[in-house]
Design goal:
The structure holds 2 protein chains of 2 kinds. Chain A is an alpha/beta fold. Chain A has helices spanning about 45-55, 75-80, 100-105, 120-130, 145-160, 175-190, 200-205, 225-230, 235-240, 240-255, and strands spanning about 10-20, 20-30, 35-40, 60-65, 70, 85, 165-170, 195, 210-215, 220-225. In chain A, a hairpin with a 2-residue loop joins strand 1 and strand 2. In chain A, helix 4 (about 120-130) packs across helix 5. Chain A is globular. Chain A starts with 7 loop residues before the first strand and ends with a helix. Chain B is mainly α. Chain B starts with a helix and ends with a helix. Classes of the chains: A alpha/beta, B mainly alpha. The interface of A and B includes residues 19, 87, 94 and 143 of A.
Amino acid sequence: MKDKREGFISLRNVSSGYNKKTVLKDISLTIPAGKTVLIIGENGSGKSTLLKTMAGLLPYTGSVQVDEKEMNTLSEKERAAKIAMLSQMNRAYFSYTVEETVRMGRYRFTEGLFASFNKKDHEAVKAAMEKTGIYDIRKEQLSSLSGGQLQRVYLARMFAQEADYIFLDEPTNHLDLKYRVILEQYLKKENASVVAIYHDLLQAFAIADEIILLKDGRVLKQDTPENIINSGLLNEAFDMDVISYLKSVKKESEAF
Amino acid sequence: MKISKKLKILFLIILSIVSVSVAMGMGSVSIPLKEQLSIIGNRLFGLSTGYNDSNATILLSIRIPRVLTAFFVGGALAIAGVVTQSILQNPLASSYTLGVSSGAALGAALITVFEISIPVLGILLLPVGGFAGGMLAVLFVMLFSKYMDNSVSSHTIILVGMIVSMFTNAVITLLAVLFSRHEHHIISWTLGSFNGKRWYHALILAIAGVIAVSCTLYRHMELDIMSFGDENAKSIGVNVSKIKYRQLILAALITGISVCFTGTIGFVDLIAPHVSRKYMGATHKAIIPASFFFGGILMTLADLFARTLIAPLEIPVGAVTALIGAPFFMYIYFNRRATHEG
């Protein structure tokens, strides 16, 4: 069961993008806490830009509020307490160990000169590693891990951050089926509020409480999965007959 | 930090003392450790023990300032290398990537060829000119990167830095050809030397080294996190733009202070952080002190080779670091890649 946590992220007339290129155009939407909201749309529709803008990682015009506080008035650590994000841009250039990497998620709790981590931090790091099945490889260097193991390390780092909202950009990339299932169960059951970009539409419809359908930097529709499917807007968003495709995939999977 | 890492740092400190002492003992006249200790003991505590007076003069006015300057320049450059590599998320970046050294070399070359003289500055004119050139180059790299790319990504900084370095190097070559009378001077400046360094050089660079180590250790956690890229660091809660600028400016300043007194000396800032990461792991809490000592040891030994290998002639120390550094770097880099891909 999802909790009944109060709060929401709201965007009012938000435009944002990179350098001089505007990607999101005048977007207004509200994401309630305690729900799993998935963003879908074709390549270049602005999914990642929307996620980064909501996470406060991109400059924007308009208003982005998280729990009624304007995003760009929050300090970096305050923002990290609200939102933790698993980005797609994860490359390890230096050989940190798994544990050292996960521990970085606790940065927002550190204070003062030459700060270091305390017992509570170490416990949270251990819990995050156990949850993602990487506790046994905690001493390994990142450079020796597979893509899926690395993705779990970054997931663990994000969990260790213990933020109110969790943002995921293509979280199932490289993940083995086993951990994909665990992650999807987490998305369905945990108390955290989740906003994620998902490529697998069938899975997206199965997991989501709400879906945001994006096209050319604008929100076509935000609604429950059923209403999105029934709206007929999917075909417009993806420039193809999505419904027929999904039906055929579903039929094939039911053959098992 | 774990005990094993602390022991490793202790080992590096001992190794630093040994290499500094060996370097102080070797040269045109050999001054063994026992005599070194007698001379220093006499000057510090007035102990009267037997030593040769001329050796004392050589040790106190030539060797010690020179060796200590080399040690601290090596340490400071290594710290600048650590910072630039983390912030630009590129293990091949160095403070030279920011254009500091080529800018400094151009500043010094301009003063040399136009025979500029500012009486107030006296002998400090060349270092001050070099420092100003280095800082101007960095400023240009940063502002131009900002103009090209609002988010000032690491790739933009590296690319702009490379272009600025290449351009300034071309101008330096042109100056050397046009003003052939000064060619030797310009070339020797671009290869660096610790010849004739005094106590005040060692003191200034020791201060720069201590400041570099403390300012970076103070931000060790942020440097760790920022090596995963700006976006990740921001979402973890690091004030990326503030720390990025401050740490890069710090790297530019310490490089500027180092090269303005000694000329440009490459590779130490690239190699010391690499070796430290291999030896200590990746966390900055460990690699900052380790790189400082490694850099110091490398530079001390490079300078020792430079002045003793074909004595009485002296090889420019920059040539020694490049001669040893280039193949060594290739070995560690490709060795690393081979283990990663294997």
